[in-house]
Amino acid sequence: MIELLLIVDDKNDVKASSADLVDWDWSAHSLIAKQQNRFAVYANAGNFEYLSRLFSEIMDMIARSRMSLKSVHNITIDLFSVISHLLKEMDTGIYTVTNGHFSYDTILNMKSLQEIHTWGQTIISDLVSFFESYRLNSASIVIKKAKEYILEQYSDDISLEQVAEHIFLNPVYFGRLFKKQTGCTFTDYLIQVRMKKAMELLQKPQYKVYEIAPLIGYKNTKYFIKIFKLFVGCTPTQYREKLR
After folding, report:
1. Are 66 and 43 contacting, i.e. CB atoms less than 8 angstroms apart?
2. Where is the HTH araC/xylS-type domain (predicted)?
């Protein structure tokens, strides 16, 4: 037998009966807690495009649970504390990222669930914009470092895996990112670098074709000539003759 219990925020505010308490303890609380965990997982993984929908789902579940406004404030603070901590690790702050729209006092002063919901979606929108920009800038920096390394090492037997290791990225991810940022594959870009260098060297008569091949990373002269013809449209010798 369950005793009759009342949840009271203050002396004049009775929030729930024993039935409400049972529903909250075993149903709403568990489901909301699971969604809070999902929110934290998505935020830490950088999947901010899912946070807007997830935040709305949490607010809808809270609305059905008849939770006190104080509890809603606490859950909202917990949700955004995860993101605030993540931004601190990136040497920035949630207040800066949201152009001053975020503060814990703002949350505590909100008077309704709808107000919290609307405010939260605005904050999440600001965060999505920031992280999209951050990703683009980060990707550009990473690819710039990769290109610099390729320019330093193109004369060696360089590979995608070697470059990925140099910039501390998974090879598969790096390959996809490189193509997305440059519009060509790693292999095609490496060939471009080598062929441009070959054309420069062909302008210097002191270099024989078989001498140029190893200087740009090809041990096999015949293979170098084949790649050069595919890239330029003529053999190295024909290219040199055109320069005269």
Report:
1. no
2. 144-242
Which of the listed residues 135, 160, 193 is the one where a domain comes to its end? 135
Closest alpha carbon to 143 in 202, 183, 197, 198: 183
187 and 165 within one domain: yes
Planar angle of CA 100, 86, 94, nearest 5 degrees: 0
User: Residue 115 sits in which domain range?
Assistant: 7-135
Q: Which two tokens stand for residue 122?
A: 């605005």
Report pTM.
Answer: 0.56
> Helix, strand or coil for residue 110?
coil
Query: What are the pLDDT digits (tens) for 80-106?
Result: 999 999 888 878 888 888 888 899 999
Question: 225 and 145, same structural domain?
Answer: yes
For residue 72, give Cα distances in angstroms to 40, 78, 102, 110, 117: 17, 10, 16, 10, 10
The residue out of 110, 135, 160 marking a domain boundary is: 135
3-state secondary structure of 15: strand
pLDDT of residue 11: 36
